[in-house]
Amino acid sequence: MLKLSAVAVAVILLSNPVLAQAQQPATKAAAAQPLAARLDALFKPQYKADDPGATVIVVKNGKTVFRKAYGAADVAAKTPLTPGTVLRLGSITKQFTAVAILMLAEEGKLALNDPITRFFPDYPTQGKVITVEHLLTHTSGIVSYTGKSGYVSTMAKDLTVAQMIDGFRNDPLEFEPGTQFRYNNSGYFLLGAIIERVSGTSYASFLEQRIFTPLGMKDTAYEGVERSSAPRAVGYSAQEKGFAPAQPLSMSQPYAAGALVSTVDDLAKWDAAIASGKLLKPASWKMAFTSYKLSPEKSTDYGYGWGVGTLQGTPMVDHGGGINGFRTHALRLPEQKVFVAVLSNADSGNANPEVLAKKAAALAIGKPFMEPKEFKLDARALDAFTGVYDIGNEQRDGKEKRTFTSRDGKLMMARGDRSPAALTPYSKYGFFFPGTLARFEFERDAQGKVTHVTVDNAGERTRNERVGDAPAEREAVKIDNAGFDARAGAYQLAPQFTITVSREGERYYAQATGQRKIEIFPASQDVFFSRDVNAELRFEQAADGAPVAVLHQNGQATRGTRLQ
Q1: Handedness of CA 520, 522, 525, 528 (dihedral sign)
Q2: Which of 326, 327, 474, 517 is the most exposed place for a label (fewest CB within 10 A)?
Q3: Cα(91)–Cα(302) distance, rounded to whole angstroms?
Q4: Confidence class for position 555, pLDDT limits 50, 70, 90
Q5: Which helix (H) or strand (E) holds 221?
Q6: What pTM was estimated for this model as a whole?
Q7: Which residues of 390-424 are buried (b: 16+ CB within 10 A; e: fewer)?
Q8: What is the pLDDT of residue 494?
Q9: Which regions of 397-488 does DSSP assign to beta strands (E)?
Q10: How big is the chain by its Cα radius of gyration, in Å?
Q11: Which residue has the higher pLDDT, 152 or 208?
């Protein structure tokens, strides 16, 4: 729900003519267009007037060079989005939480190396020391509540801060604090509670009094306690056909990890305050924008509330947000004095704000990305690229690998335990993810064997070594079709979210609300898996004998009963 889009970590500049060529302007005529026209040409094709859309702002050298909105704020009412429309920020909220903590630290009311037991004396840290800095940098080891089994089914329920903390405080730590990076909403929830305990006021009031009001951010607030009457956008999720209002969410649950709403204009004011060094001392701002290190050799690419990386070779800090009905991204290039924010009122089904924000920033600094064109490659050539590749310095917890496999004439890539996705070739050795900025260029040794892959993400490159063969594809078994047919139907896993299972001849399918139908394969009569999504669907029986479907995905097990 409140995920951060990862960026590549270490920068390894390699001689790569294909990648370099892919980053040049398409034509001299395009490069000669005014910047605003080029930005409009980037965004306009992505959003239909009658669908959910996005608000956009681009600031350069302190001046707004582009400010526009696309699509509908309310699809049913056919109300257009405007640049002044208020939208949910999602996890962009985290940078405001981090700055609030740093303000309190500068005032001597807390220290970043304070153990959290100073503020929560009875918090069960399981014999470990968890500090405020661990919470800021996603290195605490605490379980993220949004990743827990059953979270989706209860996310519309209003809960107190104490009740929310009780929901994860007793879970075993996932790792030794300070030894791994794992994006974590629980950490930022606890930071909100610390702000309240130290300041003696609510999280919402602290941000309003200490940040929003002094900076003139009149349309920014904790959702539910807004101070202005600016129009609000409805949030949507993609359905099989079109869009529908997103699933309900109580904003007591994202809290300091993602409950703020704002406009692109207010975010530009926020960036101007950062650029001029307001609110914090220079040393504190520097810490916020410095990547936390797990060790001298291993960086996390994350400071305090911001991701830290590069874009087209220039330093960048950024953060994205994904929350019910909304996707967002905001970035700043401090050396180039560029700020970009893209706020969308759809959480799925249309353009990716992160990709668009980065493309817009690249245009603003005169280093645009060029969309690579598909290259015809014989499917038999794909086998040479398959295998397991060590992410190396890019890894944060020491466990992730990239796995490339060949299937149905496509090269598939999966990172860690994520679902595989199809790549498209743009050269004999180069591939890209359509709709993203990710490129993959394979290297061969003198004998012609593939040994490495260079990953280019928005101009930031890493080189991954091939360390083994790809695992064999999971085998399906033969099952009794009559037994499957007895379970076919729609299962409700959450309000407004169902999975429908069906059979066509000897093939089995599952389709989730708003998503395409995918083929599933039997591992047994009761367990099915997908080759497109890293998930399992297991069938059980309720006490009354009624069939129950349990979706196992991303460490969660979500149960659903069959609809009549």
Answers
A1: negative
A2: 474
A3: 13
A4: confident
A5: strand 221-222
A6: 0.85
A7: bbbbbbbbeebbbbbbbeeebbbbbbeeeebbebb
A8: 77
A9: 401-407, 410-415, 421-425, 430-432, 438-444, 450-457, 460-468
A10: 24
A11: 208
